[in-house]
Write a structure and sequence with these properties.
CATH superfamily: Gcn5-related N-acetyltransferase (GNAT)
Helix content: 25-40%
Number of domains: 1
Low-confidence stretches: none
Strand order of the largest sheet: 1-2-3-4-5-7-6
Number of strands: 7
Number of helices: 5
Order of helices and strands: EHHHEEEHEHEE
Shape: globular
CATH class: Alpha Beta
Length: about 170
Amino acid sequence: MSFRIIDGKNYLFSDEDLWILAEMETHPEVMKWNIDVYTDDTNKMYRLFKKAIKKLPKEKNQIFLIAKLNNKGIGFLGIRRGNKSKKHVGIVGITIHPDYWNRGFGTRLLKAGKEKAKKEGLLRLEAETMAKNKAMIRIAEKVGFKIEGTMEMRIKKNEKYEDEALLGMILR
């Protein structure tokens, strides 16, 4: 089993890579937990990834890592640097394909993202997830995040209101 994490800024994405990212992001099990759903249409998601990846090498405020197992994309992580008075803060998003959940890949990817954020001079990382997303909270806590608060009825999904957990960590 060959697992590796690749810096997306230095990677030449194939069309197949972009389709894998799009299919992962629009997978029904992923969509169930995704707070900011842009689209559930894989074709539209593919076009969004293609556009974003094209800009990635020049993007100073973005970290993008891809997790590959046996040379197949199984997950990705993005960290977006905050604006103005929050340039020291990175906002984290992570997706692992459901076929690879509960195998430690999310933890390894998040640890790599944390180390990359430190190298890029970020001082703080933040993440938001549905409060009932115990798996994501467990992964984040393993890497050093702490729950800093919960906002009630913050997310509306499928006509139901969900609480949102706010996680943060100081990079030392």
